[in-house]
Specification:
The complex is a heterodimer of chains A (196) and B (204). Chain A has 196 residues and is mainly alpha-helical. Chain A has one domain. Chain A has 8 helices and no strands. The relative contact order of chain A is 0.20. Chain B has one domain. Helix content of chain B is 78%, strand content 0%. Chain B is built from 8 helices and no strands. The longest helix of chain B is centred in the C-terminal third of the chain and has 27 residues. At the A-B interface, helix 1, helix 4 and helix 7 of A face helix 1, helix 3 and helix 8 of B.
Chain lengths: 196, 204
């Protein structure tokens, strides 16, 4: 008899599943990884970010760091607009045009005043940010998603700057201008896709 | 016969009592439990909470940019302020819904990105204020768990973190390293802006 009673008690323990409420912070790591992946998921984003880095390297200090500092800060404002539901028409067109113009700047090694370069980069950052800000999957941490995509954007700028270091050699200069032509051509392709 | 009935009743009572006592209760806590005691739980809480960790790192980065005087002051005042805020938080009610830590992100990120030269006294007060605010939130979060010992763990971690990071930044000589720190500051400010955005979207 005792055996049956203890068997019953054991069965109750095993079957009585506890309810777990929010013990695990779900979506934390996933949010970070999603954010980290997001800028890499679209070639239009990737090329524009790398173009910012390359152009900064061509322009030298202080543009070398002012452009990559400007971009994430203004990009976050664009993302905030998206989060607040403020519509921004022609986002895909804006992103495509950013690749065209930034590629053209690299191709022509254009050297505008620093202020103009920063405004131009900042203007396009709004489009990129808006796209990022509206695409957080449900259930993921907003902060960690933001950290991921800001870091990924910075890494892409860094890659652009690293590529831009070949600017010191004549062959490197030519190669960078070729890269600019490629980015601009891809921008036209993205534009065609956006309006088609 | 009577004895047998009493035994059965006793066994049933014991079974019922132990079932009630051992029934797992609802787990509603968000705290990190390391299994190594309250001090480590506090350390784990800080290291796994980006809302606190990033501003703490940002304070250390800015202190490193500003120089030795700022670094030395912040090394002591910042963890102390965090502890005091935490002790106050242990007696407070609930967390505010607005992510006030976004202010730390924005302010510190902007200061680092702009490499703004705040006077040492002003920065010390600012760091203490940020420490009190974050400590206060930690105190609220930890009061049902590791409480005071957890706060001590956090304070010790902050001391080590600020010492290592600010000393490292201070030791950097090439000009480009300062630029890297400023870029990191712009990232922190961008995250702060986004925290506000997520709050208004209701997904923070």
């Amino acid at each position: 008899m005792n055996f049956y009673i203890w068997f019953l008690v054991l069965a109750v323990y095993l079957v009585w599943a506890p309810s777990v409420q929010a013990h695990v912070q779900q979506g934390q790591a996933i949010g970070f990884i999603t954010g980290l992946e997001h800028p890499w998921s679209g070639l239009d984003h990737v090329l524009a970010m790398i173009a910012v880095g390359i152009w900064g390297a061509q322009l030298g200090i202080p543009a070398l760091w002012i452009l990559p500092v400007t971009f994430p800060m203004v990009m976050s404002m664009g993302a905030m607009m998206g989060l607040l539901g403020i519509p921004l028409p022609g986002i895909e067109i804006g992103i495509a045009v950013s690749a065209i113009l930034l590629g053209a700047m690299v191709l022509g090694e254009v050297r505008p005043k620093l202020f103009i370069a920063a405004v131009m980069v900042g203007f396009f950052a709004i489009f990129h940010g808006h796209a990022h800000g509206t695409e957080l999957p449900a259930g993921q941490s907003g902060l960690l998603y933001s950290m991921g995509f800001v870091i990924a954007t910075g890494v892409l700028h860094g890659i652009g700057i690293l590529i831009g270091t070949i600017h010191r050699w004549p062959v490197g200069k030519m190669a960078l201008r070729g890269a600019g032509a490629f980015i601009a051509a891809m921008g036209f392709f993205f534009l065609w896709q956006a309006v088609a | 016969m009577r004895k047998s009935v009493a035994n059965r009743a006793g066994l049933f009572f014991a079974a019922a009592l132990s079932t009630v006592l051992l029934k797992p209760s609802d787990a509603a806590a968000h705290l990190v439990t390391t299994g190594m005691g309250p001090v480590y739980d506090g350390i784990g809480h800080l290291l796994l909470t980006p809302e606190d960790l990033v501003p703490a790192l940002a304070v250390a980065l800015y202190a490193g940019l500003r120089g030795r005087v700022s670094g030395k002051r912040v090394l002591f005042f910042f963890p102390l302020a965090w502890l005091l805020g935490g002790l106050a938080g242990l007696f407070a009610g609930s967390m505010p819904t607005f992510p006030l830590s976004a202010i730390s992100f924005l302010l510190l990120g902007a200061l680092i990105a702009a490499d703004l030269h705040l006077p040492d006294n002003v920065f010390t007060v600012l760091a203490a204020a940020i420490g009190i605010m974050h400590g206060f939130f930690n105190g609220i979060a930890l009061k049902t768990g590791p409480a005071g010992l957890g706060l001590l763990g956090i304070m010790a971690t902050l001391f080590v973190l600020v010492a290592i990071v600010s000393a490292f930044i201070l030791s950097l000589k090439p000009p480009w390293t300062r630029i890297v720190v400023r870029v990191a500051g712009s990232w922190v400010a961008a995250m702060g802006l986004l925290m506000v955005g997520w709050f208004f979207r209701g997904q923070g």
